Amino acid sequence: MQCGCPVVLSDNSSLPEVGGRAASYFDPFIQGSMYDVIADLLNNTERLKMMRTAGIEQAKLFSWDKTAAIHASVYRHVLKNSSIQ
Predict the structure, then answer these.
(1) Which residue, 12, 14, 25, 28, is the most exposed by fewest CB within 10 angstroms?
(2) 10-23: buried (b, 16+ CB within 10 Å) or exposed (e) per residue?
(3) pTM (2 decimals)?
């Protein structure tokens, strides 16, 4: 996604939250669903172009630095509000 590659994801778990509107989704419980989504993308150059641009923007919402900062904040909060110090 970060490199502009269109992404196809399962439509369950947290993947729709991560991919947002920048990804295409398939139902993992329906046989052939992934194939159908990929085939549709290969035949829709406008959608592929949009996904490349949107994917780069969506990927900017996530970084290891941001993840580390959020985790550190949670740990500080827990330590501040616990009897363990």
Answers:
(1) 14
(2) bbeeeeeebbeebb
(3) 0.76
